[in-house]
Model the fold of this input.
Amino acid sequence: MDTKALRQKILDLAIHGKLVPQDPNDEPASVLLERIKAEKERLIKEGKIKRSKKSAKTSDTPHYPYLLPKGWKWCKLEDIVSFGGGKTPSMDNKEYWDNGKHLWVTSKDMKCSHITNSLMKITDKALVGMTLYEKGTLLVVTRSGILRHTLPLSILEKPATVNQDLKTISPHIQELSEYLYVIIKANEHIILKEYHKDGTTVDSIDFDKFRCLPIPLAPIAEQKRIIAETKNWLSLIDQIEQGKADLQTTIKQTKSKILDLAIHGKLVPQDPNDEPAVELLKRINPNFTPRDNGHYTQLPDGWCECQLENIVKYEQPQAYIVKSTDYDDRYLTPVLTAGKSFIIGYTNEIEGIYQNTPCIIFDDFTTDSKLVDFPFKVKSSAMKILRVADSIEIEYVAMFMNITRLIGDTHKRYWISEYSKLCIPIPPKEEQKRITNAVNVMFEKLDTIMENL
Done:
């Protein structure tokens, strides 16, 4: 289930007046707009807000994107709210920060719909040069790399100040806060695409455009129904997403357990007719001496423990390192690196392509490894190419390396000389095949479940 698309559909229905039924007895939005205008004039008169200048983006005959239900009214965001911003008090002045008690919200705090706390707080002395925004104020991130894909938006549950990367949106009538949250989130994809500010070093929102965001204003009674229904649906979607995340975690744990059983001889039954592993290890190295199973106790009969270096040869990848970073999906040869972004692009280089596959690609900084069965080039010398002896199933060795990690500093470089001393339990050749076949069947089923979540 595509919960992101479902979430957007709920919000789209809400702003089109199709999520809850209209009630002809509701006070129309035109009356609400008059109340908002009156409240705005009162706030200006009392000096609490300033009269805003007509936006450069404002048109006398604005175009609105769709027809609204009866009783609704189009307006611009700037017609019904006032805007504000913030700054960062000097970090060098401890009197501004030590034992601070006033919330100072930054983009790092904008991870939920309602803000109740902040990572950093300022003191009364710092507050003198700041604006303390009241509960119900909306906060939006307008300057951050996250704006490439997400528009962080939150509502204050407590008074707070903000830094310069945030703008505040204060409705002239505070009960509009939750409704405006729905409207802005529903338009998130439009804002990120059409209001993106070009020509800046950091991704940002063109706030002159944002001020003029068209607002489909529903009657206040219907707004309350929309908010309640939206929260109900989004709560259900949250539960689905949490269940999905829990199941993904369970699948990962299940895979790890399957591999653990596999390398301990507990995944498939043994066959006493299989040639013992010690015999194939002696064919690889006539001088091979079996270990005492000190690392893998109670191994099944026919199994044998050896060091990884007894069955694996390591190749330095210098000859296969890609020279150009001009990657293009139209090219044929993949360029490999470590981590989730295994294939980082494709190159048109025709020299130095590694062809002797299958092999295992190993990263000596993170100890990530992957089985590769196609020609490739690598990004850096931190990648190593591991060749496995012909009498050993390479898929079995790849399984072992996927669940085996050296313990130590995450920034440490794990030299092959260290990794090669790892002990690996080796089953008979035929059992290696049965193990890899069983694991592949199980993983295929788990992957199908994962893909359909």
In short: The radius of gyration is 31 Å. The chain has a mean pLDDT of 89. Residues 12 and 187 are 8 Å apart (CA to CA).
